[in-house]
């Protein structure tokens, strides 16, 4: 359906695209045999299919799991299209009907024609009436004659009727519906723009998270559940959000978290992200699964001219922008010994030419799908353990910091501190690894409660679900040195470096506003007392112990059972 929609209507609106993909939603639930094999039976069956698919799809689209959320009118429009309302007067409904017909011609016509009950008159009727009408609308004889080779017969029937002269489709195909960058003013706007303009597979790969998405949603929801305690009557004329990360000065406590396969979003992928980070004066962590080798990312960064210094005194920082990987430090991701099960990514086949030069692995599809996330599974070593941290330290030149990314409990934060690493990222991979793992801001609270000393002995970073300047502020109040942005940076990258800059500057502005409203002017003034965490306190473990607080029963080893 998607392919034929692109042919029939390259400029199809996002709602039409959705309706097109969803029009046969759970069709198998109402088999044709459940209605009499007569024409009235057929028509009733079709009407039932449409109304059931429309209401099920509307229900699904309204669920909180759908991100970014769709407006009620958009959902209603998708449902109306699936119901094929106003077929004669609504151009989009007509396009949807045409696409269904084209799919039939392409895929099912030959089988249909062979059925004994289908006589010549019906075929000629269908070809002369329906197919010719579509043909006239599409205005491109190549569609029927060349791209449906199996249906030669229909081609003959159609082309034997008088037709308007073929008109070439507009070239080049118009760009997908991407709103102008200047119209985007929130992280949600960027996500919506990505939804309407990324190819379906790219959006599935970037936005997806593990299984039922609980952790993915909890990351953001936990920030909303924490309240601010605004303080008034402080002089907040000038605020500074500058800080340092592992000894390097940066203009904001925000960094681009490592994300793989940047080319799926922008042809210059991580190189373009690097240009944006350099001109912003913020840190970038480059993934081992980047679309470019590290040296090429570094070249792009080196060649990026610094922007003129602005109010945040960027110029000095631009000489010293930390790129973490193997230069300024090593971020070792520890929360994904195996890839998470990301079903939205799994369901759509991957482009098998997608590969990651640093790991040397490539996308592969099979009957179950083709998650791009599987690429990582091909080189991750599930046997890596704490002992390897000491080994890694021995391999690195002295002074190169190690940061463990993916710490999710006080126990592991303490262990990391004892191993002497310079930093940790409290992260659950943006909810992409293990569903129902805790929201990361709650893990910061756990560290505050159970092992506050870690904040003095290492730099603690956090990522996951940060969508607002208030989120950044809350993380910093709870001891984070800086926050990582994963998906958001890729949604910005949809518009190139300029988009990433707009995205980060938008968060910076929101952060500054929050600081002013809370009566603080620099990041060394933030502290947990500026927050009300009452709504989540009961979720925070009481100690850094392995034991469950009260459930003590343990399974007996096999063989000792008295039963
Ligand atoms: C498309 C995508 C690819 C990612 N690839 C990596 C990766 O290669 N290595 C890694 O440590 N984390 C990876 N992550 C996780 C991010 O570094 C980060 O932890 C997460 O995205 C933060 O959550 P957020 O997207 O809600 O900001 C990836 C995340 C996304 C969305």
UniProtKB/TrEMBL annotation:
Gene3D superfamilies: Aldolase class I (3.20.20.70). Residues 162-178 have a biased composition (Pro residues). The keyword NADP does not apply. This is Cytochrome b2. Its cofactor is FMN. Residues 179-536 form the FMN hydroxy acid dehydrogenase domain. Residues 159-181 are annotated as: Disordered. The keyword Oxidoreductase applies. GO terms for molecular function: oxidoreductase activity. Keywords: Oxidoreductase.
């Amino acid at each position: 359906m998607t392919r034929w929609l692109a042919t029939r209507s390259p400029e199809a609106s996002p709602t039409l695209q959705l309706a097109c993909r969803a029009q046969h939603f759970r069709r198998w639930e109402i088999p044709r045999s459940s209605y009499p094999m007569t024409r009235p039976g057929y028509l009733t069956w079709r009407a039932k299919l449409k109304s059931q698919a429309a209401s099920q799809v509307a229900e699904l689209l309204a669920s909180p799991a759908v991100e970014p959320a769709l407006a009620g009118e958009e959902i209603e429009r998708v449902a109306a299209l699936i119901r094929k309302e106003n077929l004669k007067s609504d151009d989009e409904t007509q396009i949807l009907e045409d696409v269904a017909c084209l799919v039939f011609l392409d895929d099912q016509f030959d089988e249909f024609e062979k059925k004994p009950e289908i006589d010549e008159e019906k075929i000629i009727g269908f070809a002369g009436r329906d197919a010719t009408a579509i043909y006239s609308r599409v205005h491109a004889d190549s569609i029927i004659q060349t791209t449906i080779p199996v249906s030669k017969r229909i081609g003959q029937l159609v082309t034997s009727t008088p037709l308007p002269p073929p008109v070439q489709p507009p070239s080049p195909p118009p760009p997908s519906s991407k709103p102008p960058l200047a119209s985007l003013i929130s992280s949600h706007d960027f996500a919506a723009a990505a939804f309407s303009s990324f190819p379906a597979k790219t959006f599935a790969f970037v936005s997806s998270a593990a299984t039922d998405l609980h952790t993915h949603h909890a990351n953001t929801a936990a920030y909303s559940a924490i309240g601010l305690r605004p303080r008034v009557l402080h002089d907040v004329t000038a605020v500074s959000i500058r800080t340092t990360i592992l000894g390097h000065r940066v203009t904001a406590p925000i960094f681009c978290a490592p994300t793989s396969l940047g080319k799926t979003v922008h042809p210059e992928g991580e190189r373009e992200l690097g240009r944006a980070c350099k001109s912003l004066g913020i840190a970038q962590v480059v993934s081992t699964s980047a679309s470019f080798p590290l040296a090429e990312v570094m070249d792009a960064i080196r060649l990026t001219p610094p922007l003129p210094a602005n109010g945040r005194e960027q110029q000095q920082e631009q000489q010293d922008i930390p790129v973490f990987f193997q230069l300024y430090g090593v971020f070792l991701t520890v929360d994904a010994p195996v890839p998470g099960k990301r079903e939205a990514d799994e369901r759509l086949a991957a482009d098998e030419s997608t590969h990651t030069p640093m790991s040397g692995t490539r996308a592969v599809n099979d009957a179950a799908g083709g998650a791009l996330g599987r690429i990582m599974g091909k080189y991750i070593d599930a046997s890596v353990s704490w002992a390897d941290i000491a080994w890694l330290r021995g391999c690195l030149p002295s002074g190169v910091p190690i940061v463990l990314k993916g710490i999710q409990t006080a126990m592991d934060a303490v262990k990391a501190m004892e191993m002497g690493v310079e930093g940790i990222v409290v992260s659950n991979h943006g909810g992409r690894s293990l569903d129902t793992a805790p929201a990361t801001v709650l893990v910061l609270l756990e560290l505050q409660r159970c092992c506050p000393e870690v904040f003095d002995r290492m730099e603690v970073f956090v990522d996951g679900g940060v969508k607002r300047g208030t989120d950044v502020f809350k993380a910093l109040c709870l001891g984070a040195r800086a926050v990582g942005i994963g998906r958001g940076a890729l949604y910005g990258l949809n518009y190139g470096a300029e988009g990433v800059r707009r995205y980060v500057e938008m968060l910076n502005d929101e952060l500054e506003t929050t600081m002013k409203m809370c009566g603080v002017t620099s990041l060394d003034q933030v502290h947990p007392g500026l927050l009300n965490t009452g709504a989540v306190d009961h979720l925070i473990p009481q100690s850094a112990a392995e034991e469950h607080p009260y459930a003590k029963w343990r399974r007996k080893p096999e063989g000792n059972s008295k039963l």
